[in-house]
Amino acid sequence: ETGVTQTPRHLVMGMTNKKSLKCEQHLGHNAMYWYKQSAKKPLELMFVYNFKEQTENNSVPSRFSPECPNSSHLFLHLHTLQPEDSALYLCASSQGVDRHSNQPQHFGDGTRLSIL
Amino acid sequence: ILNVEQSPQSLHVQEGDSTNFTCSFPSSNFYALHWYRWETAKSPEALFVMTLNGDEKKKGRISATLNTKEGYSYLYIKGSQPEDSATYLCAFRNNNFNKFYFGSGTKLNVKP
Q1: How far is CA A27 from the centre of its chain?
Q2: Measured between CB atoms, does B49 come within 8 Å of chain A?
Q3: Strand pairing partners for B101?
Q4: Which residues have a Cβ under 8 Å from the Cβ of B7 and sit 6 or more positions away?
Q5: How many CB atoms are closer than 10 A to CB B50?
Q6: In this complex, do A98 and B97 lie within 8 Å of one another by their Cβ atoms?
Q7: Which residues of B touch A91 (CB under 8 A)?
């Protein structure tokens, strides 16, 4: 039990579909993150939310739309994805992102996304 | 674009061997260096958070050192066991607190 739960674990979708990835953390953290890992590439930060406010968008295409309704839940809405978007999407949480919050991130198991 | 390099990319050792690998990062605007262990089909698990130049941290048979002036950190595993087989990731955090920059990882395989 990692404290960070991601659903679904696997997702196959067509380029015209709309789907959402869900992340939930039970650790009382204030910051949540979306990462993308493509084959043979390092983990790439996509979005950061701190106290439900988006504080970082790492030049992510608009076909990825994050939503953070509260500090415990984070969604990634997917629409009109491309084959190159096939990857492992990891969610993480941490205590916070300010100067005084230098705690490690806690990761979920990820969603393996395949775009047909 | 900020470069975090890990070497070697992969490592095969025998059970009982000691091993070490490197994480290189920019030496300016340093804030913290994180190490994570990522087993196949599981989630990355935090090992260490290092913040001070000269820091040394230890967790069982695993230890890490930090040199912020020259921009590198070493991870050591003493007496490797098959259960140590995993990918070891480092993540650099600079003064832009929102961002973590990950290396590509070192994949360790320990043969019984």
Answers
A1: 16
A2: yes
A3: B92
A4: B21, B22, B24, B106
A5: 22
A6: yes
A7: none
Q: What is the pLDDT along chain A (116 residues), one digit of tens a residue?
A: 559 999 999 999 998 889 999 999 999 999 999 999 998 899 999 999 998 899 888 899 999 999 999 999 999 999 999 999 999 999 999 987 776 667 899 999 999 999 99
Residues B110 and B101: beta-carbon distance below 8 Å = no
- Token pair for B107: 């994949």
* Residue A113 · residue A19 · CB < 8 Å: no
- Token pair belonging to B23: 């994480």
Q: How many CB atoms lie within 10 A of CB A21?
A: 22
The Cα B1–Cα B54 span in angstroms is 26
Q: Are B102 and A43 within 8 A, CB to CB?
A: yes
